[in-house]
Amino acid sequence: MLGSVTLADALVTCVCSYLSLVGSLLVLTSYFVARTKTMPRTATLILHLAASDFIWFSVSAIESTYWLSSDGVVPKGLCFVCNPTMVFMRLVSLLWTCVISFNVLMSVQRRKWLWKCDDESWGTYRRRYYVIILLLALPATLLGIVKQHRGGNYNLGCSPEYESLGLWYEVFFPELLPMLVGLLFNIFVYTQVRSRMLQSAYPQSVRKRRKRIMYHYVILCIVCWSPTVSAYLIELMGYHTAALEITARLCLYSSGFLNFLVFGMQVSHHA
Fold first, then answer.
1. Which of 59, 54, 62, 65 is nearest to 21 (CA)?
2. What is the pLDDT of residues 94-117, one digit of tens each?
3. What would the DSSP string read from start to end of 36-100?
4. What is the rounded CA–CA span in Å between residue 39 and residue 30?
5. Which residue in 63, 94, 193, 213 has a CA-CA distance of 20 to 30 Å to 76?
């Protein structure tokens, strides 16, 4: 029988995961339905974001459904798949949003640097994105796999009960640091784009379009990731608050649905 806090945490995770799963699936569907040869390149990046969200929240939905079942236990074999997949795809999702933000910055400051490149150059940029994302997301995933198989701790990351993060350096460097970098990078991009758009020589129509995108984008990034980053920092300082944990779950596991509202319904604005 789950306690009241654990039950609330499991319910929030389950409901938000299914909402985000639906949101990411709608983005994927809309992309392939409306796909054309002249599809904006940022729309392709949004497709990658939606694909990572779809995998992440599919696993999360399965896991949280087990939490709300009669015994609340995720099967051992399934847990060996769920935990590393969630750790990896969660970081991948954040990193793809950074790539989208970077491309918005380039389209505002140096339009010909990326948006006027040929298909071959665009393929090179995409391959670089893949490599960077893999290098940043893989360490935490591999460490999680090692922890799961070390000492028979197979249920790591799959229990609805509170779990300690463990040694600070095992958490900070492979997992928390990429989150901090991603969050701070988006704030930096926002300030740069806003500064650029405030220049009197900047076209008013473009200014309004980019400002709307960046306001929505930064708000989404801050709302979804700040509680989780705060929870990690507080945990590493030796404190734990159930309210912050539930808030972090609510915000982070709603990100897939919010990505659909912000990105999926505004693809034309990213041309």
1. 54
2. 999 999 888 878 777 655 555 556
3. -TT--HHHHHHHHHHHHHHHHHHHHHHHHHHHTSSS----HHHHHHHHHHHHHHHHHHHHHHHHH
4. 12
5. 94
Measure the CA–CA gap between 203 and 215, rounded to whole angstroms: 18
The Cα 2–Cα 81 span in angstroms is 24
Positive or negative torsion for Cα 63, 154, 9, 252: negative
Residue 120's Cα: distance from chain center in Å?
Answer: 28
Q: What pLDDT, on a 0 to 100 scale, did the predictor assign at position 146?
A: 92
DSSP state of 164: -
Dig out the tokens for 69 from the structure.
Answer: 């079942």
Report the alpha-carbon distance of residue 90 to residue 147 in Å, rounded.
18
Domains recognised in the chain with CATH numbers? 4-270 (1.20.1070.10)
**Nearest-angstrom CA–CA distance, 94 and 133:** 9
The single-letter DSSP state of residue 15 is H
> What was the pLDDT predicted at 37?
64
2: three-class secondary structure by DSSP = coil
Mean pLDDT of 71-98: 93
Q: What is the pTM of this model?
A: 0.91
Whether residue 36 is predicted with pLDDT greater than 90 in this model: the reply is no
Burial 66-102 (b: 16+ CB within 10 A, else e): bbeeeebebeeeebbebbbbbbbbbbbbbbbbbbbbb
Distances (CA, A) of 145 to 64, 88, 148, 245: 20, 11, 5, 23
Residue with tokens 């509202």: 261
Tally of residues, the chain: 271
Chain center to CA of 182: 10
